[in-house]
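Reference record
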Amino acid sequence: NLTIVAQDQAEVARVANIPVQGQQQAVQQESTLDFAVTCAMSTASDQTQLVNFLAQHGTKLSDKALALRQNSNVDAQLTTAGSSNTFDQTFLPIMKQELEGYENDLQTAYTHSSNTTEKQLLSNDFQNAQTLLDQLKNAQTALNKVNR
């Protein structure tokens, strides 16, 4: 379902923005912040394309509808991590989980799609999510080196 994918994109971008907008001082590694900025921008761009596609095909999603998959537990975990100097160690695994769930929903939507344009859009989004997961691994590796 494309609505679920758009909601996933909204949540991934929202969570990725937390260290950029609210917890920047809590971020320990530049690689974590670089990942967060790239993830937020890339996912928001993909979401804009998907929301526009949906609107062209008769489905308009409000901001409220896009926010239905927001997880307040994530916010609480990151707030705690920010005040206990463990932001990066908490943020990166959360983002990995968010991106992997997003990828699963992309695959499901792709499998159930019969529209060529829709399939291409979902395929591009999946490739972008893979790239983000690769960048996340690099950020995690950099963090692990520092914490040894």
